[in-house]
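Protocol step 6 of 9: fold each sequence in the batch and record its C-alpha cells directly after the sequence line. For illustration, a two-sequence batch is reproduced in full.

Sequence one:
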Amino acid sequence: MWIIFVIIGIYAFIIAFGILELLFFILPVKSLKNPSKGQPIDPPEFYVKSFVFHIHTEFSYDSLGKPEDIETARKEEAIDYAIITDHENTHYKCFENDHTIVGKEQKITTEKGIVGSLISVEDLKVVAHPFKKKYIWRLPKEEDLVIELIDLRDAIIASKYKMLWRYIGSLIPKIFLKKRIYRFFAPALTPEAYIKKYVEQGWRNPVIGGLDHHVKIYVREVGIRLLIPSYKWSFGMLRNFVFSKSKLETKKDIIENIKKGHTVISFVDRPSFFFEKENHILAYLPYENSFSILYEEGIPKSTFLGGYASFEKPQKPSFIVAYSYMFNIKNLYFGVKPIAISNIILP
C-alpha cells in the first residue's frame, strides 16, 4: 500500500514542479489595449559603450570581492567599463586599468543624521539608494546630480519572494541556459515602480542603473573560486549603455556623457536606442517580440508593439520602458521581461 502512496507522491511532485516551470517562463503577463504598430526605422548612428556602475570590492568594509574577479566577470559579460565605488575610499586606483573607473560612495550626515548617499566619480555626482528610507535624499535637488533609478541590490531585496520562486524555477533551465539564466530574474524587477517613486520625489535629473554589488562569501582554494553573490550574476542582470555622436575614446568621455544623460539602463546585453527626431521620440529595440510603453510622470500613456516605436514628444517628464515577451494570445502577452529604460525625457 505504501508503494502506491510513494508513486502518487512522486507524480504529484513532478506535476507541481512542471507547473512551477511553466509559470517560470510565462509569468508575468501584461495586457495591452490597442497598442500602435511601429514602422521600421533606420538604426541610429551612435558610438556605444557598455558599463556597470556601483560595485564594491574588498576595499569596502562589507564586501570581499577582488579586482581580478571584477576583471574576469567584465570580460565574460563583454562589458567595456566597470565603475568601482567602494565605501569612503579610492584604494582600487592601485588596480585601475583601461577598463575600470574608480570613484567612492559616501554617506552624507548632518546633525539631523543621514541625509543621503552620494557616489562621486571625478566630477560625476550620483545620488545612490534614493528610494531606500534610510538614504532618501534630504538635500537640495541640484541640476548636476544623476539619480540611481535602479539599485539592483535594493530591488532584489524588495522583491525577495519573487526572486526566491524564480530561483527555484530556474533549477532545471539553468542546466541548459547556463549564464543566460540571469535574464529570467529580470521579470521580478518592476521599472515602472521606480519611475513612479522618482516622479513622486520630484526629480527631473538624468538617471543611471546601479548594482550595489557586495560579495558576502568568498572561498578560494586550488582550483576552486566561489563568490556569493558572483559579480557575473549582477553584471549579467543589469548594465548601462552610453551613447554619443562623437567617439567615446577616454574615460572622461564616458563620464561626461553620463552627466548629460546619454545613457540607457539595460537588462540585456544588447543596446536599445531612444532618440529624438522631428518632435518624436523614437525607439529602436534589439528584439522583434517586444513592446515599449511611454510613462508620462509615471503614468502609462501610449504603447507601441514591435521593435520600433515613434512616440510624440511628451509635454511632461517621461520615461520609455521596453519589454520583451515570449508569446501572446490576443491582447495578453506572456513571459514579459523588461529590456531597457530610457533616460529622462524632458519637454
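Sequence two, same batch, same settings:
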Amino acid sequence: MNRLLFLCLAISAILHLATPAAVHASRPYAPQTPNPLTEQWRWRSYDELKGRGLSALTQSADGAMWFGVDAGVLRYDGDTWTEFTPEDGVLGAPVLHVLGTADGVVYAGSRRGISRYRDGSWVPVHPGGSVLPWPVNGLHAGPDGTVWVATDWGALRLRDGVMTLYTSDDVAAALSILAPELALVIVPGVDLLWGEGIGTAVVRGDHIPGHGGSSWTVWRLSPDGPGDRAGLQVGDVIIDIDGEGSTDVVDGPAGTSVRVTALRAGLPEELHFEMIRRPVPGGYEPLHVWEVLEQEDGALWFGLRSGQLLQSSGAAADLTWYTHDGDGGLQAWRMATTDAGS
C-alpha cells in the first residue's frame, strides 16, 4: 500500500512539473498593445486652422509644421503660430502646395507661382517680378535635393540656382517671348484640336483687383483664327468674356459671337475684341503637368492633366508615352516610389 501511494504521489508530482512547461511551449506569451491610431487621447484639433482653407502641409528640417491656407502660409513650431501672407513675400494666395527640403528651405506654390522661405524671409522664385501667372499643381523633392514643380506650363526643375522647364514645342515657343530667362527642354506634348471657338489657348492666372474673377493669359493663337484675326496677342490677359467676368469658356458653337476684354503689357487701357466663333482647323500642344516624381536612378515621371504619363530613363530625349487604356484616361494626381524602385 505504501509503495502504491508513493508511486501515485510521484506520478502526480511529475505531471505537475511538466504541465506548465507544456502549456508555455504551446502558448507563447503575446503582449496585447492598443493601436495608437485609434486612441483618442493621442489626437487633437487646432482651432488656429479651422476655417482657414487648409490645402497642404509639410514639415521643415527644424521640425516645424507648415500649412498652405487661403491667406498664405502658417508655421507652427509646437508653441507659436506664425502667419505669412503676400505682404510678407509669399507669391500669391491661396497657397495650394508647400514643401520642406533637407536644407531647411520651405517652398510654397499658388496659382501665381513659387516662393521660398529661407533665413527668416520669403522671396519669389518664379516668375519673379513678372505678372505672368505660373499655376503650381504640385511640389516634389528629388533624391539629390532638386526641387520639381508641376505647373500648367510644364515641369519646372530648380537645381543649384538654375531653372529648367520641361515642356512642349508649342509652350516653349510662347515662353521664348513671355519668359526668355528660362532654360527649356522639349518633351512630347499632348495634341489637342482647336475645334469650334476662337482658336485661343490660355493659362489661368490670379484674380486681378478691380477686374472681377480670375484672369487668363493667352499663350497660343491659331494662325488666322478668330482670335488672331481680331488682334489678340500672345501675352494678353483676358479679364472678361461677354460682360460676365473672366472664364475659360472662350470656345463655343460656330456662328455665335463673343466679346473679349483683355489687358496688354505697356498699355494703360483695356482692349476689346469682337469675334465670331467658327471651326478652327489644326491643333496645339500643351503640357499641363499635375505631378512630378524623380526616382533614385534619375528616371522622371510626369503625370499630365490629359490623362497620360510621361516617363524617361533620365535623359529628356528618352521620354516615352505611357497611356492608360481606360475611357477617362489616367489622372495622376499624386505619385510615389518604393525603396525597391517601383
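Proceed to step 7 once all outputs are recorded. Observation for sequence two: Residues 192-283 form a domain with the Pdz3 Domain fold (CATH 2.30.42.10).
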